[in-house]
Give the backbone structure.
Amino acid sequence: MVQFASPSRSQSPSGASSTGEPRRTKKSKSKDGSSKKKRPSADDQDGDVTKPNGTASARQNAERRSSMSKPARDFRDQPEPAPKKKKRKTLSTSSAPPPEPSTAPTPEEAGETSTRSPSPLIDFDGLSRPSRGTRERLDESPEQKELRMEKMKGAVRTLLECIGEDPDREGLLATPERYAKAMLFFTKGYQQNVRDIVNGAIFQEGHNEMVIVKDIEVFSMCEHHLVPFNGKMHIGYIPSNAVIGISKLPRIAELFARRLQIQERLTKEVAHAIMEVLKPQGVAVVMESSHLCMVMRGVEKTTTSTITSCVLGCFERKEKTRNEFLSLIGVNRR
Ligand SMILES: [Zn+2]
């Protein structure tokens, strides 16, 4: 297998690392209109990837191969890496506080990859992210549903009290219920699974040219602040004879967006899910979005957009293919 480690790769905004991790670059349009993208150093890469780019080696290849069969890489799946100055700087604003102890992986998530589905995304029961609450939510009886709603309403009422409001004033009377319903809608992706959405819409067409759906509107919720982020996602793939119904791509994006997310993981999950259900030659996903947690609070930078990408298969291996995708979606032109 040929390892592509050309220097030009580092100029690509979408140069995902060798493990398929999406890489985040921030673009600020406020300064001089130019859109220079910072090239993150090797230190910026998450977790265990510490080798500088360009060390093409069998070892790297081996790592890549094995990462495909492992559960999705995820902040919660790994011990927190030692804090690095660089990383803080690049990822600071909208990014994660370090993982809380409470979100530490459960024993079954943590160690024994062998007990998990080989798929990083689609669990044995068809739900896309293994989690206790997801199954409960899907299987609940009407009584349990009512109970859940009461619990949520109580929580929202508490919030209203804590911010200094009067939950009993007229305008707020129905707010706890409205908010609870809205929250369940924002997170409805927990109840869906990829296989239901694809629902057999995979067709053997013998088509092997690039397919792109661009400007898919995506609304998601930042898991760190529970406020929305939204933007556009661009999905491309090169079939291996089989194509997927074109409307399924936005629906897969929607499924993963309607959960608590971080943009990096959302990008990666969409790419891996398509890779998995369709088995194409490669998949590329680029997402650009604006995070309310960054715009309305924190650094209050209203013009920043955050771009993440995940390239798999031939998009990862072939720079030409990747560049074709990027120029077709218009990322290279700006
Ligand atoms: Zn946030």
Summary: The domain at 7-128+192-329 is CATH 3.30.1130.10 (GTP Cyclohydrolase I, domain 2).
